[in-house]
Design brief:
about 180 residues; mainly alpha; elongated
Length: about 180
């Protein structure tokens, strides 16, 4: 359908974004990157295109490119909570925990109750040795959705890199029996 939309309207940036998301979901990172590049060429002020390209670059291991894309998305749309959260995830994988913490806090301030940000805050607190605060935040997630007890579900739901999942695994294991 996106191919058809693009054929009918080649300057339709949303179609490129959506096709990029579909391609990324199928593991076609190169195709997704090409679509995000086209969307950016067509609409250079499209914050979502930069944020999505940042995610694809993260998946390829291009953390510098990902951070640059998230920075641009945030510059274009300063209230873009997801871009702050995604950039914070990259900082976490680089063990830049203060930067990660600041990003997750900003995302949570912009969108109170944003589960991606709360989960990020929890694992970052945990990684920094603030175990009680990390556990408190994680328990608040579990109270809202019991699936947060399941690390595999968390990995899939949050689409986290293994370093973040490993910290979540430690945090969840430390919670003990939550029944």
């Amino acid at each position: 359908d996106y191919d058809t939309a693009i054929r009918l309207k080649p300057d339709y940036s949303n179609a490129y974004i959506n096709r990029g998301i579909a391609r990324a979901g199928k593991g076609d990172v190169e195709g997704a990157l090409a679509d995000y590049d086209t969307a950016i060429r067509l609409k250079p002020d499209y914050a979502m295109a930069y944020s999505n390209r940042g995610a694809a670059r993260t998946g390829k291991g291009d953390v510098e490119g990902a951070i640059a894309d998230y920075d641009t998305a945030i510059r274009l749309k300063p209230d873009y909570a997801m871009a702050y959260s995604n950039r914070a995830e990259v900082f976490f994988t680089l063990a830049k925990f203060n930067e990660a913490m600041n990003g997750f806090k900003k995302a949570d301030n912009l969108q109170p109750g944003f589960k991606f940000a709360i989960a990020g805050l929890a694992i970052t607190h945990h990684a920094m040795g603030n175990v009680n605060e990390g556990q408190r935040l994680w328990r608040s997630l579990v109270e809202q959705d019991e699936r947060y007890k399941d690390v595999d579900w968390v990995k899939d739901e949050l689409n986290w890199a293994e370093l973040l999942v490993a910290e979540a695994r430690k945090l969840i294991a430390g919670l003990g029996d939550m029944n």
